[in-house]
């Protein structure tokens, strides 16, 4: 790997000959910051190309001159993938001007969008065509599709519809040598060689820059409904999930586990949020979307009756209106805000095998007990084994009191996740935050193969250096 | 790339020191032949390792000595991926002894199996755990999971459940340097680095040898049903598919298009097969699997009524019993046998964007008219855009009369597929049959990146040389 250089004045001058003026933007602080303030870029040449060919021109020039390129989507990533704090003036390549919806085809059930399109705009375009684009994440109002795919975003509907990669039929990307991978396609069956789409999805801009994608559209559920049920314990939540899927099939759109701590935090910090079941130790939010002859309310009432008979649930309420369903979701979606108001010491985006969730939850407190006294709020997408595992100070203490403990807590939680064959990055990606975790926990065979692929496709190491794999 | 050598007596002798005697088998002709008789291997050292470590030992030795390794699953592949006709005595590495089901977990909804497990055994193990493994292909009684994944097999249920890759949660594989990729995992959300699982799936044994996989299990539909409907034309079939999915959601398990020629062939060669609608120009077989409160018969009758009102369908029959549903499927599944009895000149495993199916079907006859007079039987998984497009001699002539035409027909059909942005290999893979097609039709950016990845992971080019990419 050669030494990387900076996007100096000379380099920028040369680029000005090959790119329209609109591609050059004044650098602004927001391109050098990220939501949690853990990394800050020093400076950079901000470029906002308007076409795939312009992206290719930039990457080709960067490859020639060994100038690093940091791709920038909506800037909502939580792991520092979009901020190269250790680079001196890289190119910051924003996809914001590539924001065209190229094609919506309801017959094909596919939409082709450029990388800079905001996730919510894809959802809206799908709805306008009487279709559903099901990917739903908290940052959907600002996250851009290129970043959503590059980080393989998840969210609450993964149980039914899969992660971002499962919703992508084809991609167009600029590879590290500046060549263009023209893989936009709505094809459902296509076995013509290696699946580079899935290689670039989740690669966080280190193997190529996604410039456009063809995404799946799905039928919009005709009837929706939701229920909250108090469950005996986390194991009962799993049994309830399987019971629900056995009876209702793919109609189960989301299945969220909520621990008592989250409800207590809501009661303390956001008393306006309604808690329909009070504060049971463990409860679940179940969301259904059914076809024309489906009756979600009846299905949920039936599920509750069967689950109650089996002693899985102790209490429950089925939404009687769309408004009540929204209230349930408001509760669930307010938990992260309540967490912020309490102030976590440490938060973890982890997953474990679904069947291991009860053991993981029960072993968690002991794993960190030696470090100090803490409160744990564990909640999340139990249908995917994806838990948000957040550690808080005891009442009367603050997160600042535990600055020294953060690293030990993280190690203890990640070690426990690893012991359960789980993942230390479930849905947020690796970025720059978890490069060391990958080196600690990842299968060495996988890590070596990843490095070989990175070297093969990006021999100069210009694309997002330091993200996912350590730059060296 | 170094010159490859043969698995000579000396090489075998050295291997005998490191492997148990059970791993050595007498070569038999069946390992050197394939179903359509297009390729025949000359000879080879047949090895049947019993463990992943033994596979690694073999591949390491092969890499050291530059001996090519041809992985062998169930031998059912139709594109010559399992037969290296141009190699002198490679290792033929059969996974047949790695046939353990390592774990079935109904709570986790996952099954972990070794590569040599027969597909049908996976289906049966799932059923015994009251779960569904939905992948269904004609060769399921002999195809082994390693081959099913390496070719990313498809089948009739892709519309609902996806291709083989979509049903795989994790893989274990031996990489070309003999290292082991330990990626068995039931995790649904795991964003820790590049997705090597999807890179190896569909790579046809050229980037690694899959030794085991963790596969998704799904809820078993409680109520199933089927209907056959005569449609106005192929465009009406697409509208009917979307109507069905809008009303019934994911409950639509299969949606098969059947052309009149297929029904005529059945009437001529297999008169015992019942044709419930006679011989309409175009008809579809719709299969449903619904949850506990679903009523497939009512849903299909409702669909027919709405579709008839919209003038999409002209006739229809809803199965009144499981026996009648099986009759419908017997009809569909007998078409390939009827094709064999008629004797095709040329058959094509292709896909086009779903919305392009009507145009493709209408342009097909003109595309081959200049070559001669033919009969076309077009049928297949219209919900995936995957058509089996088979060309037959006119009555009174035989396939042998057209030996000279085969190549021209193939070129004409593939050119038309390419013009519609389709795929010349929808579900069977590339193997050795379509290496040239890839060079002709594949995006050059993709082909170059594939070659770079192959060189990076397999610098000596020992794994299945000549499959997917030309050996050179």
UniProtKB/TrEMBL annotation, chains A, B:
Pfam families linked to this entry: FAD-oxidase_C (PF02913), FAD_binding_4 (PF01565)
PROSITE patterns: FAD_PCMH
EC number: 1.-.-.-
Residues in FAD-binding PCMH-type domain copies: 38-220
Keywords: FAD, Flavoprotein, Oxidoreductase
Cofactor: FAD
Presence of keyword Flavoprotein: yes
GO biological process, one term: respiratory electron transport chain
Gene Ontology molecular function, alphabetical: FAD binding; oxidoreductase activity
Superkingdom to which the source organism belongs: Bacteria
Similarity section: Belongs to the FAD-binding oxidoreductase/transferase type 4 family.
Protein name, UniProt field: Putative FAD-linked oxidoreductase
